[in-house]
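R.M. (postdoc): so does anyone remember the format we settled on? I'll just put the structure tokens first.
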């Protein structure tokens, strides 16, 4: 390994060639979906590190907020590549992305409340 970058505004994966619409959708949501999956696993497994759980919650919320704001600005040229790629491939109206983010956020709040450990 020659370089490790944890936070970057540059894409970390480049795909040469054309993809099917389903592959485009997968590529678009894979990064954010991984963040949300890690958040869900953390809350279901309920390890005792409260600060890490709160940090993951903030990162997941930022992902959903970013997708929502990017969908609001679609088709502006400076929005997230993931959101524009997803909307083009799925041929959805941006309102569906916003609604999906709101549903995921509401489900996340319910899961967080359901899995909350009592303070000791």
């Amino acid at each position: 390994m020659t370089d490790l970058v944890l936070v970057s505004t540059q894409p970390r994966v480049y795909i040469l060639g054309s993809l099917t619409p389903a592959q485009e959708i997968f590529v678009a949501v894979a990064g954010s979906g991984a963040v949300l999956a890690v958040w869900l696993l953390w809350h279901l497994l309920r390890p005792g590190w409260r600060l890490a759980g709160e940090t993951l919650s903030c990162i997941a919320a930022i992902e959903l907020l970013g997708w929502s704001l990017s969908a609001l600005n679609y088709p502006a040229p400076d929005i997230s590549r993931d959101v524009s790629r997803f909307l083009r491939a799925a041929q959805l109206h941006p309102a569906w992305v916003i609604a999906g983010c709101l549903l995921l956020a509401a489900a996340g709040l319910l899961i967080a409340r359901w899995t909350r450990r009592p303070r000791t």
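R.M.: ...and that's the designed sequence above, right after the tokens. Also worth knowing: The CA atoms of residues 38 and 62 lie 14 Å apart. The mean pLDDT is 85.
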